[in-house]
Amino acid sequence: MRTIEYLTDPVLRGYYWPGVGVGLAIAVMASPLSVLVVLRRLAFIGQGISHAAFGGVGLALVLGAVGVGVLASEPGRTGLIVAFCVAAALTISWLGERGRAARPDTAIGIVLVAAMAMGFILHRAAVQASQARGLPQPPGLEDVLFGAVLGVGAGDAATAWGAALLVLALLVTMRRDLVFWAFEPAAAEAFGVASARVRNVVMVLLSVTIVVGMQLAGVVLATALLVLPGAIALRLSARLWPVLAWSLASGLVGVAGGLVLSFELDQQPGPMIVLTLVGLFAIASIGGRWMGRRESVAA
Question: What's the CATH code of the domain at 198?
Fold first, then answer.
């Protein structure tokens, strides 16, 4: 099997293991958030933030190409993209809150298309500026969409796990408020939960997760991991802890299975992980209906 060869060969394993580590870190970071995304119907918001990141990427690339020193390094670019995504997420939240300026889905659409258009224009400007100054060409838009999870290094894997642990720590710290906000939104305010604050924190965590996932594995995979694990879990259970466990398990299995398929079939990892997660969702849908019928018969 190619998978065993790639992960055990003394020459090849140094190339493949960091990508495996990054993929698993993104799954650990995104899976708990996925439950919140599905319960509060924020899937389109996750899509909006992830595609709004195009604007942040374009801005970072063009500023780096024209000589803004701090944006010549990866940490500087990542920081700007995170800030851009957070601003986009909070703008969506503000516009959609109680229909302030538009319906929530309209607000998402406005921010999404504006940021993507900005990103395409700025990416083109970055290419032209790099050519004029004799600098290396910026990554293509296909790399932004699908990423290069097997092209990352040990430092990228460490960054991904650091971000995953930070997100998990915040989720654990705020678990009471998050549970009320996600599972009992009507009663949240009565129990002293500041729904607007919780929503904004979730938006920030989504932005961080999307940027880390996008930088290392592409927009498509980051978006899939913020929707499909939670959707799978909620097909299999309606109780809090089993749902979280199923979500984490499906995220990890989806990433691991997709990587194995990409090794064996010589395909790009991102799309294979997404297709694996879609397959798990189909299985969970059938299994959930079967378990529901069994419970009905037993009752």
Answer: 1.10.3470.10
